[in-house]
């Protein structure tokens, strides 16, 4: 069953002068079509300005299509009457952890969402318990968010979304500001939510390593989808990706370089194990 | 390397910085940090969030004064009573994280001119410096009159860096300059920094969370943990200790793990490989040698 369905989506950023006349139109999304299956882990890649974030902001109605439609399950994002339901269904996590935390205590921060939509207190705390457990932050529930590391703050932000019982989480470069451990923590948490709770994950990132375990990778350029496939399929196209200002995981890159130098290796090697398994017969 | 006193640009002697000294919340943000940085060096600083990296770099241009210890710039103690901290801040340019959030002028050229304008220079000199700085970060005259807000993320960041360069600093400190940039954007910015270092003979200090980037670009790495300087060496020396790095919340570049794994399988490629190119060359060499012996 499709959870996200965008059809002929077009979005223009319009600049107007003081008299409200149109000064400039920039097309950020240009006739994009996509259908995402419930429970999939989808990674979105693309250079700065390719339209990734603009697309993400359409998924819970922060931006509305200039043309075309976006449906989340059976809700049209442009329908004002169901906006609240839409926002419960799709949660967003952004780049800067410090901009997303409002509570003085971790558990209060997580409770903010469900409290706002009038969830009864008992049920609300149940949800907070479950959400903190799901992101592995139960031990920190009475702490001040200020004392947490970047990775922990992002996990609290994710717990806040989980407490809304969403079907889909959209993460827009959630690890850009984190140290290596923080990055691993966040990606591991998101993968677990995806596998255990069957939450659809849409992850926008510039770190190719984070994409390896995705079910599906989408590459955007000029507001369109230019590649769409499994990580293996997409990362087999090293040259094309580089032309699109992107990269491949370092394992894939090394395998590619060795292949260029004449070694017989398959395309799209992603993991350390794959690389070593393929290299050993050549080296021994 | 032979050490000439004249070559030492920055020297920290037992720097301590304590938050909330004398209270129950007393905490060392820096503890007995000592190091010397030579003119023209490209130094990387790594450490997990909260390890003291940002506190340290803010000491280097006098934004934060240490609780105890001494800091020398070009041989002068910056904590001496008559030391001109204003001048120090021009000589040591600091580019913060997400510097593009600090752009505020109506157009790109004015924004870059803001720094030198405060340096009592002639109009001509100010404009010349701004234009030169923009050229150094790869922005030509078509950008001069653009609003900073219509630029892409990478372009905005270049404008912000140019703003610091226009002060003619001797040392450029960059705090995570490539966060949020696409892979090509990261490479381009680093290439420009390397060019800059060559052209202006600048000392560059780079704070980064990307082990791949520091492995590829810097001459020397300082590793911070809990306010202490725990390792100081070339990237190769530092990344050999990847198990220790992991224990303090860091890691080695992905390539290190491939080399280690092959070693476990009996294929020893040597222990100073940190980049993809080095790994490729070592593997190809290994095969050649094996074929010769066969």
UniProtKB/TrEMBL annotation, chain A:
- What domain of life? Bacteria
Q: Which organism is it from?
A: Lachnoanaerobaculum saburreum F0468
Keyword set for this entry? ATP-binding, Cell membrane, Membrane, Nucleotide-binding, Translocase, Transport
All copies of the ABC transporter domain together span 9-247
Q: Could you identify this protein by its name?
A: Cobalt ABC transporter, ATP-binding protein
Check the UniProt entry and state the signal peptide residues, or none.
Answer: none
- Tell me where it resides: Cell membrane
Its organism's taxonomic lineage begins at:
Bacteria, Bacillati, Bacillota, Clostridia, Lachnospirales
Q: Which family does it belong to?
A: Belongs to the ABC transporter superfamily.
From TrEMBL, chain B:
- Where is this protein localized, as stated in its record? Cell membrane
Task: Indicate how the chain sits in the lipid bilayer.
Answer: Peripheral membrane protein
List residues of the ABC transporter domain. Answer: 10-251
Which SMART domains did the record assign?
AAA (SM00382)
What EC number(s) is this enzyme filed under? Answer: 7.-.-.-
Q: Does the keyword ATP-binding apply?
A: yes
Alphabetized GO MF terms:
ATP binding; ATP hydrolysis activity; ATPase-coupled transmembrane transporter activity
**Superkingdom in the source lineage:** Bacteria
> Per its UniProt record, what InterPro entries does this chain match?
AAA+_ATPase, ABC_transporter-like_ATP-bd, ABC_transporter-like_CS, ABC_transpr_CbiO/EcfA_su, ECF_ABC_transporter_ATP-bd, EcfA2, P-loop_NTPase
- Mind telling me which residue stretches traverse the membrane in this protein? none
Q: How does it assemble?
A: Forms a stable energy-coupling factor (ECF) transporter complex composed of 2 membrane-embedded substrate-binding proteins (S component), 2 ATP-binding proteins (A component) and 2 transmembrane proteins (T component).
The Swiss-Prot or TrEMBL record describes its family as follows: Belongs to the ABC transporter superfamily. Energy-coupling factor EcfA family.
Annotated function: ATP-binding (A) component of a common energy-coupling factor (ECF) ABC-transporter complex.
Q: What is this protein called?
A: Energy-coupling factor transporter ATP-binding protein EcfA2
């Amino acid at each position: 069953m499709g959870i996200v369905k965008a059809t002929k989506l077009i979005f223009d950023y319009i600049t107007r002068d003081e008299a409200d006349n149109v000064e400039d139109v920039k097309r950020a999304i240009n006739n994009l079509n996509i259908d995402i299956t419930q429970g999939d882990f989808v990674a979105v890649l693309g250079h700065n300005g390719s339209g990734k974030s603009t697309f993400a902001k359409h998924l819970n109605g922060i931006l509305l299509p200039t043309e075309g439609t976006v449906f989340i399950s059976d809700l049209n994002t442009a329908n004002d009457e169901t906006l609240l339901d839409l926002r419960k269904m799709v949660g967003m996590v952004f780049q800067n952890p410090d901009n997303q935390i409002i509570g003085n205590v971790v558990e209060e921060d997580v409770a903010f969402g469900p409290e706002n939509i009038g969830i009864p207190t008992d049920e609300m705390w149940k949800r907070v318990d479950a959400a903190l457990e799901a992101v592995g932050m139960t031990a920190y529930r009475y702490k001040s968010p200020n004392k947490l590391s970047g990775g922990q703050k992002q996990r609290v932000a994710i717990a806040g979304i989980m407490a809304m019982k969403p079907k889909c989480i959209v993460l827009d470069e959630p690890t850009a500001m984190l140290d290596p451990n923080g990055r691993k923590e966040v990606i591991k948490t998101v993968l677990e939510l995806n596998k255990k709770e069957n939450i659809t994950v849409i992850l926008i990132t510039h770190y190719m390593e984070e994409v390896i375990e995705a079910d599906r990778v989408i590459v955007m350029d000029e507001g369109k989808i230019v590649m769409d496939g499994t990580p293996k399929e997409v990362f087999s196209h090293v040259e094309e990706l580089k032309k699109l200002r992107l990269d491949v995981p370092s394992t894939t890159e090394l395998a590619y370089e060795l292949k260029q130098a004449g070694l017989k290796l398959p395309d799209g090697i992603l993991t350390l194990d794959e690389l070593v398994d393929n290299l050993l017969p050549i080296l021994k | 390397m032979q050490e000439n006193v004249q070559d030492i640009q920055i020297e920290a002697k037992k720097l301590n910085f304590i938050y909330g000294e004398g209270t129950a919340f007393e905490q060392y943000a820096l503890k007995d940090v000592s190091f010397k940085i030579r003119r023209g060096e490209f130094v990387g600083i790594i450490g997990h969030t909260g390890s003291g990296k940002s506190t340290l770099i803010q000491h280097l241009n006098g934004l934060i004064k240490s609780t105890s210890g001494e800091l020398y710039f070009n041989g002068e103690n910056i904590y001496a009573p008559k030391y001109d901290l204003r001048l120090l801040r021009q000589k040591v340019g600091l580019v913060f994280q997400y510097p593009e959030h600090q752009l505020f002028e109506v157009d790109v050229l004015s924004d870059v001119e803001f720094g030198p304008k405060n340096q009592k220079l002639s109009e001509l000199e100010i404009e010349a410096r701004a234009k030169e700085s923009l050229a150094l970060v790869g922005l030509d005259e078509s950008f001069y009159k653009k609003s900073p807000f219509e630029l892409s993320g990478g372009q905005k960041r270049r404008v912000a860096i140019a703003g610091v360069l226009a002060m003619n600093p001797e040392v450029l400190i960059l705090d995570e300059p490539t966060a949020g940039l696409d892979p090509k954007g990261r490479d381009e910015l680093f290439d420009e920094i390397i060019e800059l270092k060559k052209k202006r003979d600048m000392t560059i200090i780079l704070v980064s969370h990307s082990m791949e980037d520091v492995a590829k670009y810097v001459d020397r790495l300082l590793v911070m943990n809990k306010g202490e300087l725990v390792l100081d060496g070339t990237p190769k020396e530092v990344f050999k200790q990847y198990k220790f790095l992991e224990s303090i919340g860091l890691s080695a570049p992905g390539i290190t793990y491939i080399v280690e794994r092959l070693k476990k399988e009996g294929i020893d490629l040597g222990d100073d490989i940190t980049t993809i190119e080095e790994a490729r060359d070592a593997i190809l060499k290994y095969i050649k040698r094996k074929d010769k012996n066969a």
